[in-house]
Amino acid sequence: MSVSTHYDYLDLPCQAGQESFRSITRSYYRGAAGALLVYDITRRDTFNHLTTWLEDARQHASPNMAIMLIGNKTDLESKRKVSKEEGEQFARENGLVFLETSAKTAENVEEAFINTAKHIYTKIQSGEFDLSNESNGIKLGPQGQASQQAGRAGEQTGVSKCCQ
């Protein structure tokens, strides 16, 4: 699993639990709209480090950052050391979105990114992210900028966005 990935216009740092990445990943949190916190279901130690990684993310990132907890390597079910229920419980207790994946078979990998993007989009719609501030990790493309400007013009003239 890579330290960081870029999905569309969203910066989503990915953590695999390796302590060697800890110092460099702190810089990835700044300006991130979302993060994928990944542990290996066949290695209990990666699950045990989640609290530290989550604290790191919350300390160095926007309080609005969408964090998805990923239990990886479902293709190795016979070697599982962390139950799905434990992952779900950790996610629930910490307000995270949860999914299990297999990077090897690609099971739920796309869904992990899509669900994270949907969670970020929900936060955008609720006003938790200021779209005019790129430090939130969200960069509007030309279409998005035109849409946002049209929305502001509608607010100023009293015309609703649906009627423009």
UniProtKB/TrEMBL annotation:
SUPFAM superfamilies: P-loop containing nucleoside triphosphate hydrolases (SSF52540)
Domain of life: Eukaryota
Signal peptide: none
Annotated GO MF terms: GTP binding; GTPase activity
Biased composition (Low complexity): 143-156
Gene3D superfamilies cross-referenced by the UniProt entry: P-loop containing nucleotide triphosphate hydrolases (3.40.50.300)
Region of interest (Disordered), ranges: 134-164
Record-linked PANTHER family: DRAB11-RELATED
Family as reported in the entry's similarity comment: Belongs to the small GTPase superfamily. Rab family.
Protein name from the UniProt record: Uncharacterized protein
Provenance organism: Sphaeroforma arctica JP610
